[in-house]
Amino acid sequence: MSANVKANETPASESGEAPELTDGFHLLIDALQANGLNTIYGVPGIPITDFGRLAQASGMRVISFRHEQHAGNAAAIAGYLTRKPGLCLTVSAPGFLNGLTALANATTNCFPMILISGSSEREIVDLQQGDYEEMDQLAIAKPLCKAAFRILHAEDIGIGVARAIRAAVSGRPGGVYLDLPAKLFGQVMNAAEGARSIVKVIDPAPAQIPAADSVARALDVISKAKRPLIILGKGAAYAQADAELRAFVEKSGIPYLPMSMAKGLLPDDHPQSAGAARSLALKESDVVIMIGARLNWLLSHGKGKSWGEPGSKRFVQIDIEPREMDSNVEIAAPLVGDIASCVSALLGDMGESWAAPPAEWISALNDKRDANLSKMAARLEASVQPMDFHTALGALKTIIKQRPDIMLVNEGANTLDFARSIIDMYQPRKRLDVGTWGIMGIGMGAAVAAAIETGKPVLAVEGDSAFGFSGMEVETICRYDLPVCIVVFNNNGIYRGTDVNPTGGSDVAPTVFVKNARYDMMMEAFGGVGVQASNRDELTRAVNEALDSGKPTLINAVIDENSGTESGRIGNLNPQSVVKK
Hints:
Layout: E1 21-23, H1 24-34, E2 39-42, H2 49-57, E3 61-64, H3 68-82, E4 86-90, H4 94-109, E5 113-119, H5 122-126, H6 137-141, E6 147-150, H7 157-169, E7 175-181, H8 182-186, E8 188-190, H9 191-197, H10 212-223, E9 228-232, H11 234-238, H12 242-252, E10 256-258, H13 278-284, E11 287-291, E12 314-319, E13 333-336, H14 339-350, H15 359-381, H16 389-402, E14 407-411, H17 414-422, E15 431-432, H18 443-454, E16 458-463, H19 464-470, H20 474-479, E17 484-490, H21 520-525, E18 529-533, H22 536-549, E19 553-558
Parallel strand pairs: 2-3, 2-4, 4-5, 5-7, 6-7, 9-10, 9-11, 11-12, 12-13, 14-15, 14-16, 16-17, 17-19, 18-19
Antiparallel strand pairs: 1-8
Helix pairs in contact: 1-7, 3-4, 3-18, 10-14, 12-14, 16-17, 16-22
């Protein structure tokens, strides 16, 4: 055990010596370490400050943030990258609520994460007697995560942690809440009994093998397609079945379309990539094979003009969650199981004589892809000053092609929307972005986790609005001396910096920020490197120098304030007033 705790009064053993004791602090540490969970992201405070200290003393890595939401976002990304639950540690009530936002986001995105929060004692909470930061945290967490547990007794810590781990990673992964009342940490018990109470979770995410008839049905639907399309989602990236997925795509000969966090599962310059012909591929395909992707708003729910005529498509869907099938449209061939098992089963039954899709379909997509790329090239290579989004992203596109091993974090409105179609990825799980909810504020948490969990340099490409949600975490990046280069696309506002107050009053428009702000000086304030970049050459030089040095760097990239577009590419979700005044 990791502790030798002495109580004020301890029963004597037969030898006359007091038995070795342990406590809740050390039992929790032992339970986490026994299951290979050795990194905690969090914010210290009552009642978990000493736990953080003791965890660090035991050899765990404890990364302390300035705000719990960003620590939670880091834990979620850690779970995505490692397939083990990322750990977020918060204080009670307000701290718990800050972390809960990240927990809900992790659950929506199917990232395994455990939020561990200290809490008030049950007898006070239940009678609403006004304890310090009193809140029924378990009840609040339950609707927003995959599972929630409270541990009241030290002897149950081992089993409680085991249940949280298994819930987080089994089936469709997600967020789990673990409620630890303050008194639990100080409870003592016999150390030998405590050691026996620790549970090492065996096979927490077992393979789920698809039914043979469902595999045959899927292959029958695919084989009859004239214009098939594969859509790869971030679930496919999470599965880490990279070799199987590549073999299936290449053996089938079917064009594929990666969702943003699936980019790089196969290189974006792969001859079967239909990313640059997305609109044509979605509209004209007749059979769509969904692998780790959901027909939610990101794919227009599988309906509408972008999908062509109603009823013109048949869908094959691979997902570990059977309730996902038929969520928006009829799924002709549901394939329920884990992605590695499902794709391997399809490969095994395809046979050596599998026919490639018709040449006409491949040619049509290739022609559209080449035309779109050619049209885009001139904009990406232009050297205008101030830069627009295409100029700046064109520079970053070249850098990532030269450095395919770096981690890319991306968030914003225009900064995100343009980047995911402009910047190519060449390796799996190198692109981290806002995910299913499309929320802002994940940037700095994701950047920290990417650096910690992979050891690779990180390039965080941020809109100025998105950066504002988590910008204070640049101090965290500097404090831990992480190899993170942040590029803030500064166009003086949300979407663009040109809106005006229609009343003519002194208040600026709601979407406008301080003109010509110097975000780079924030990084300098904490000992990092700050750079102002006003053109393509300055941006290229600054990013390469940052990635070469590994020093925490923030580049304030000056973007033309007129170059943004309202709501990026989802302006249709922003209702327009029909009332004229």
